[in-house]
Backbone:
């Protein structure tokens, strides 16, 4: 059971990196459209919903992995 603590530690460190990468690739196209003034506001709000969904799922995954890490060591 010693190895499972390392898995949760990697999850705690890796989830924020994955979330930031997902947000970067999700927003890269929209960022370019904002710079070139070709953005459609309905698409902007739709993408805002995707960004919020990515953040919520990332926070829930991070909280779960922190809980499992603390439960493993306590």
Residues:
């Amino acid at each position: 059971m010693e190895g499972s603590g390392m898995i949760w530690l990697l999850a705690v460190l890796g989830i924020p990196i994955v979330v930031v990468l997902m947000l970067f690739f999700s927003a890269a196209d929209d960022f370019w459209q904002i710079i070139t003034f070709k953005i459609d506001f309905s698409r902007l709000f739709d993408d805002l919903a995707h960004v919020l969904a990515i953040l919520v799922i990332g926070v829930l995954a991070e909280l779960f992995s922190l809980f499992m890490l603390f439960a493993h060591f306590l």
